[in-house]
Each structure stands twice: as structure tokens, then as C-alpha cells.
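Notebook p. 47: complex prediction with 59J.
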Amino acid sequence: MKVQRSTYSLRHRLIAVVGVLGVCGLVLVGRAAHLQLISPDFYQQQGDARFLREVPIPTSRGMITDRNGEPLAVSSPVESVWANPKEVLQHADQLPALAGALGIPAEVLQQRILQKADKEFIYLRRHMNPASAQAVVDLGVPGVYSQREFRRFYPHGEVMAHVLGFTNIDDRGQEGLELAFDDWLTGKKGSQRIIRDRRGRTVENVDLVQAAEPGHDLVLSIDRRIQYLAYRELKSSLIEHGASSGSIVVVDVPTGEILAMVNQPSFNPNARESATMDAMRNRAVTDVVEPGSVMKTLTLAAALESGKFTPDTPVDTSPGYMTLPGGHPIRDFRNYGMLTLTGVLTKSSNVGATRISNELTREHQYDMYQRFGLGQPSGSGFIGEVQGVLRSPNEWGPAEKATIAYGYGLSVTPLQLARAYAAIGNGGRIHEATFVKGADSPSTQVVDPVIARQLMTMMETVTGPEGTARRAAVLGYRVAGKTGTARKAGGGGYVANRHAAVFVGLVPASNPKFAMAVVIHDAQGLEYGGGAVSAPVFHHVMEGALRLMDVPPDNIEQWFAAQAKRKAAALAAAPRPAPVAVTVAAPAAPAPASAPAEVLR
Ligand code: 59J
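Predicted complex, C-alpha cells below:
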């Protein structure tokens, strides 16, 4: 009985157990089916979100080089450390250590994280050197990550600052060519899916969503060495003359490519925080100047084109001053009497330019200035470039027609001046300004090549013995150019103690390679004019540039003559002294200053 009863109860219990287990199994199968078949996406996402991430693949901005491949703007890899504030705040005890590794005060870090407590992303520190960033990540604070970024570096600092401009912290161009060519230089970020562990370390690269495309490199027309020379000479001239600011533009005459563009004051683009707005101005394209007498060359172009003048046509400038209808006085520095058309340029006679202008129509003058790019965009592509002011001729009164002929009542940029004179040197063909090597920029014939050649010959007299720019001369080369010394407008008239000193020149005059404009503002002291202040800067820069670019001299006889004269003078002044015995105890006296090195050659 007992056995029977127990057998009975045993079977019942077995059925009960199997039944319970079966129900459990069914529930599990049902649950599994629910998870796997009915709503898998939600759980898949929830699981993956913790580990699977789509992350950007950083890519670098293109390099900017000079025309010889020298790097001018380069991107170096840096690390930016970021955090998920929610996660970090769960481990607040680690904040002091984190702050220490980041190099920021703990309170500052804590405050910044607390401010973004409800967010999932905050930069802790950007652009760290990779080793320091790794040290931060190695602390293992949950929710702290590092990501690769690129930082722009400008090896030539203030020398190239205005040409290149700079990028912001997100590596986008803000100024200069960095801005003008931003799309070309900027790469395309890629993206990839990766699996991360809870500490944020990459466990597996799952797949590539979009490959990164690095930015394009940009080869400029700028020659680093000429740029440096121009910068050095401009800066030292400003110091020498106590001047306030200045610009230089050097153009490659045959192609219209810009070889150098510098301004003072300048700034260090690698430490921009301390730069003033004033120092950041790219004056060569954003600041205008009344050109003064350098306009006379273009007025003479119209005179020659009118058929009424040849370079030898006499122009009476007596008695050195005149009064226009309406009482406007015009003065020359002194009375040059009877000049030729060429002589008006050599001596820079305002009266002469006015007499010539009286023979021309307003429309013809205006048209000539416009053809040479005044009042027009230069084509350089610089954002923020201005085109100056050249009013339409029907707004010119009789006084303006004359003053514009010798450079007042209009305004131009240094770049426009360099470009206009480059066109004269280029046989009357003007190029759009370009900063890209080999750009083959469009060009237009603006005056007859014969007229351009005549202007070159006339301008050579300016650097000759009778001219206003003798100090622009370069030994061994023929130099053409024009000076201008313009009083500055102010207080409803022209002030006596502020000047723009201008020189624009071309060399070698027989077959021009370089055109260079120098504009220097507010030179102090007795020397403040184009001939005294700007012409010597031209001389120094061109002397170096001609050598650097191996430009053959077109006046070698002058060079030989000068060399022979120097040697003769040196020999006469200091016959070579007999060698002196040198003892260690009593060093030989230095050679006398009157025995220059040439004696030994
Ligand atoms: C000048 C002017 C001002 C504007 C005159 C410069 C005029 C004029 C009204 C007096 C200094 C000065 C519209 S002179 O560039 O003639 O390059 O080495 O600023 O004439 O009419 O104390 N250049 N400069 N004129 N204005 N308005 C000469 C000349 C020039 C020199 C020197 C000194 C002026 C030889 C200028 C140079 O050719």
C-alpha cells in the first residue's frame, strides 16, 4: 500500500515538475522569440550603442608651399581630449588627477564639467601634444577620450602672415589665402564604425563608412627668399625713418604672378592671441593711398596715345606754379622751366602734368587709368580686397582733371600700383593678379607695345643722374621707375607733416623681370619722400632678388666700370701692408678701416 501510495504520489510529483519545467521552457522560448523575432532592432541598438560607434576619421588640411616647394603652412597632428560629463561625474573623486594631467586647475575643470553636466560631449583640452594626451587617457578615468586633430603651423611667422592668413581652431581658413582657398585646402573627413570597450578603447574596426580625403596642397607664386628680403628691408626702413606702416608688392612681369607681398606692422600667426587688428591688416590689398606722382606715368601713356605728344615734345613748366580756374594752386618743388615730356617724368613736375592733361580729354585719361586696373578688382581672390576709388569722368571738375593727372583725388592699393607698372614692363599687357604658381592668369593688351617701351625708356631717366630716384639704381642693371611723395589728406585739406612715400619700379629695364611697389607711410625727419625713403628699399630688395633668380645684368659695362674704379681707389688709398708677424701674447692690430677687402681680390 505504502509503495502504491508512494508510487502514485511519485508520478504526480513527476508530472508537476515536468509541467513546471515545461511552462518555464515555453516562457523562455517565447521570450527568446520575442527578443529575436518580434522586436530585435530595439535590443540590437541598445546593445550596440554601448559598444559600436560611428567615429569620424580625421584628415589633414593641404600644405601651402612657396614656388620652390618650401613649406609655408603645414598641419601637424595633435590630440584633443574630450569627455562625456555624465560619465565623468560618476567618478568625481578622479577629477583632481585628471586636472593635473590636463594641466588645468581642478576647480576650473570641475566647473566646466558641471556646466555641461546634462550633455554627452565637452572638450577638456584641444590641440595637446600626443604624448601628454596619452598620459591623460592612461589615467583610465571613465568617459575621458582623445581624438586626433590637426593644428596649422606657419614656419615663417610674421614674414608670411598677411599672405597666408590663418585658420581657426577647427582648421578652417579665416583670413588670407587660407580663406581664399579654404575649399581646396580642406580635406573631407571620413567615418568608420568601431567597437569600443567601456573604457573607450577601440576593440575592433568594424567597417569603413566613408574614406577620408586629405586636402589638396597649394603651390604659391610667392618666392620665400624674395618675400623675406622684402620683409627685412621694409621693416628696417620703417625703423630707420620712424615710419608708421608700409607695404611692398613684387610681381613677376612676364606672368603677373605675385612673388612677394609684405606689410608692416605684422603679427605672428602662430601666436595670434597677442596680435592687434591693426597688425593683422593686409595693407597691400586693404589700404588705399592717394598715389601722387606715380600716376604721371599713366597720364603720359594717354598723352603718347593721343598722338599729340612724343617723349621729346617740349612742355613749359615755368614759373614752377600755376593757378587753375577756380583758384586751385599747383606747385612744383622748384621751377624746372622748359622740359620735354620725358623731363616731366624725370623731375616729377606737377605743372607739367597739368599742362599735358589740359591737352587730353577726361574720358581718355579715365579710360587709360581704368585699363591699367585702377578702380578695378585685381583678380587676386583675396577676401576683403578693396578696389580703390576712381570716380567716373563726368564727376571730375577742371581742378580734379588736373590733380588726378598727377595723383590726387583718387585712391589705389599697393597691389594695384605694382600690377599697373608690371603691365608697362610687359609690353602693355596687364595680367590678373595671382598668387598661384603657373596659374597662367588672363591678360589683356591695354596699350600699344611701342608706347609701353617708350614709357620704360622715359622711366629709366628717373633713376639716372637727373632723376628723383637715383637711390633706386642697381649696379649692373637698368632700372625704370617713378617716385611719389604725397601729402596726406586730413582736416579738410592736406596736412604738412604726414606723407606717403611711394616708389614703383621695374628691372631689368631692357627686358623686365620684376615690378615692385613700395609704399611707406609717415616717415619722420628730413627724409620722408619716395626718392629718399622708398627708392632705397627697392634698391636693396631688387639687388638681392636679381641675384637669387639669376637674372643676367643688362648694364654689365656699368658694373665693370664701377668695379675698376673701386679697385683703383682702394689701391691708391691703402697700399697693401706688409704681413705682420703674429704673436700669441700681443695680437696683431686689426687692419685699418681704409683697407677694404677689395684690395686683396
Ligand atoms: C608734396 C602734394 C597734395 C595734394 C608737396 C609733397 C599736391 C597737391 C592738392 C609738398 C611734400 C610737400 C590736390 S616734392 O611726388 O608735389 O618724391 O622725392 O602732396 O601737390 O596739389 O612738402 N616729390 N610731391 N604734393 N600735394 N594736392 C615731389 C612731388 C612728387 C619728391 C620731392 C619733393 C608733391 C622731390 C607733393 C620726391 O613728385
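Notes: Residues 593-601 have pLDDT under 50 and may be disordered. Residues 292-293, 330, 333, 348, 350, 403, 408, 468, 483-487, 494, 499, 529-531 surround 59J (CB under 6 Å).
Next step: compare against the earlier run before touching the bench.
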